[in-house]
């Protein structure tokens, strides 16, 4: 039976401000390496808030990512998964390494570089439409969502005409208020859609990720059609929702700092460092790195027993003053890739090269084509995704 108590602080904790972790994180960090918290189902977990300790959890073999293990921490009631043999996010070794090596060549920096002209064309098209219809405009709906959606559709060979279908399902699946039945239904519908696409491509493999998996590993008997559909689902969900929210949060980072925005616009050599700061400060993937101890381990000098749940907090780590001076400040000159927004260790984000390329192309183009961009609403009135597994905004009103 999971440990239950009403005396523990509840988790997740909402952010009071969009570019700062919940204030509780700092309190927990100051009180010790680990804080026991209460999850939505009443069970307990260890929250990890210090940068060094979060890295330690994410790199140890004694902490499992397999969500089907009894006692694994969940942010919604019930354990929901079609299978764990096709979702890298929830695999442990040796299977994780086996399938990651199969997919990694499709996301190398060299391969991503070959995609840049296509990404540029997608960004230009989205901005053309936004500029023709505005101002004002919702930048999130006009630019942030369509760019990564189109990119991941081209990468996987998914028809973009179906983006409303998979986007609506993705939003539902990443909302922690979605019920168990609604989540299961969304998951099943998306899996059936992708499996049908995989089977259709099987007779005529195409030059995309799904086609290459069919023509290589599937032909060699190393993966099934069901597994390819599972890989495609992970890449589709993670590949557009995270980047979309980061584009909007990154834009907001700049618009709330006009002097720094102008300095970066005038000196694009600052842009790579600014993108890393956007990723670090906003830390939109704070809630995705859940673990379960499979053996007795030590975290920051504190013992964690086998079977205990662990919640490493990326936003807390990214704002740890022991790791970053003035961690709440957006400092493009900091230029460090050491943040944990893409995770760390074996489960670090497979698509981070692609995400960085998309962000760079979006902001370079936005600076050039819309130099007078400004926020068209009070930041306190923006609809933030306070119940989302991935943090961000539902809308971003802008003018120019």
Largest sheet: 5 strands, mixed
Structural class by helix and strand composition? alpha+beta
Residue stretches low in confidence (pLDDT < 50, at least 5 long) are none
Strand content: 5-15%
Structure annotation, total helices: 14
Please state how the strands of the largest beta sheet are arranged side by side: 1-2-8-5-3
In the CATH scheme, the class of the domain at 83-283 and 326-399 would be: Mainly Alpha
H and E string: HEEHEHHEHHHHHHHHEEEEHHEE
Helix content: 40-55%
Tell me the number of strands.
10
Q: What's the CATH architecture name of the domain at 83-283 and 326-399?
A: Orthogonal Bundle
Oligomer, anyone?
single chain
Question: Would you give an account of this structure?
Answer:
Strands 1-2-8-5-3 form a five-stranded mixed sheet. It has a domain at about 85-285 and about 325-400: Orthogonal Bundle (Cytochrome p450), CATH 1.10.630. The chain is globular. The protein is about 45% helix and about 10% strand. Helix 8 (about 180-200) packs across helix 10 (about 225-255) and helix 10 packs parallel to helix 14 (about 350-370). It has helices at about 25-30, 50-60, 95-105, 110-135, 140-145, 145-155, 165-175, 180-200, 210-220, 225-255, 260-265, 270-280, 315-320, 350-370; strands at about 35-40, 45-50, 65, 135-140, 290-295, 295-300, 300-305, 310, 375, 395-400. The model has no long low-confidence stretch (mean pLDDT about 90). The protein is built from 14 helices and ten strands. By secondary structure, the protein is of the alpha+beta class. A hairpin with a 5-residue loop joins strand 1 (about 35-40) and strand 2 (about 45-50).
């Amino acid at each position: 039976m999971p440990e239950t108590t009403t005396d523990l602080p509840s988790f997740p904790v909402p952010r009071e401000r969009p570019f700062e972790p919940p204030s509780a994180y700092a309190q927990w960090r100051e009180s010790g390496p680990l804080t026991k918290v209460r999850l939505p189902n009443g069970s307990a977990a260890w929250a990890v808030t210090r940068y060094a300790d979060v890295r330690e959890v994410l790199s140890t073999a004694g902490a499992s990512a397999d969500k089907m293990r009894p006692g694994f921490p969940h942010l919604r009631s019930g354990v929901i998964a079609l299978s764990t043999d096709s979702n890298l996010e929830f695999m442990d070794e040796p299977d994780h390494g086996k399938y990651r090596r199969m997919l990694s060549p499709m996301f190398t920096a060299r391969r991503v570089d070959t995609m840049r002209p296509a990404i540029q064309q997608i960004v230009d098209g989205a901005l053309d439409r936004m500029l023709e219809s505005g101002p004002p405009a919702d930048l999130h709906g006009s630019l942030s969502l369509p760019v990564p959606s189109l990119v991941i559709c081209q990468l996987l060979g998914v028809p973009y005409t179906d983006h409303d279908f998979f986007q609506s399902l993705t939003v539902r699946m990443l909302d922690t208020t979605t019920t168990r039945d609604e989540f299961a239904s969304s998951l099943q519908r998306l899996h059936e859609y992708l499996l049908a696409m995989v089977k259709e491509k099987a007779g005529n493999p195409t030059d995309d990720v799904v086609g290459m998996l069919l023509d290589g590993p599937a032909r060699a008997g190393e993966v099934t059609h069901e597994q390819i559909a599972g890989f495609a689902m992970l890449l589709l969900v993670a590949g557009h929702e995270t980047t979309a929210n980061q584009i909007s949060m990154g834009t907001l980072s700049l618009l709330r700092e006009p002097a720094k925005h102008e300095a970066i616009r005038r000196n694009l050599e600052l842009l790579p460092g600014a993108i890393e700061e956007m990723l670090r400060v906003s830390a939109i993937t704070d809630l995705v790195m859940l673990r379960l101890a499979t053996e007795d381990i030590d975290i920051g000098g504190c013992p964690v027993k086998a079977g205990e749940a662990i919640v490493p907090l990326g936003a807390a780590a990214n704002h740890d003053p022991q790791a970053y001076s003035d961690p709440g400040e957006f400092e493009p000159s900091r230029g460090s890739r050491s943040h944990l927004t893409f995770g760390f260790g074996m489960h670090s984000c497979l698509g981070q090269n692609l995400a960085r390329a998309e962000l760079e192309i979006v902001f370079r183009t936005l600076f050039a084509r819309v130099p007078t961009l400004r926020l068209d609403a009070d930041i306190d009135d923006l609809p933030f995704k306070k119940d989302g597994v991935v943090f961000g905004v539902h809308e971003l009103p802008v003018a120019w």
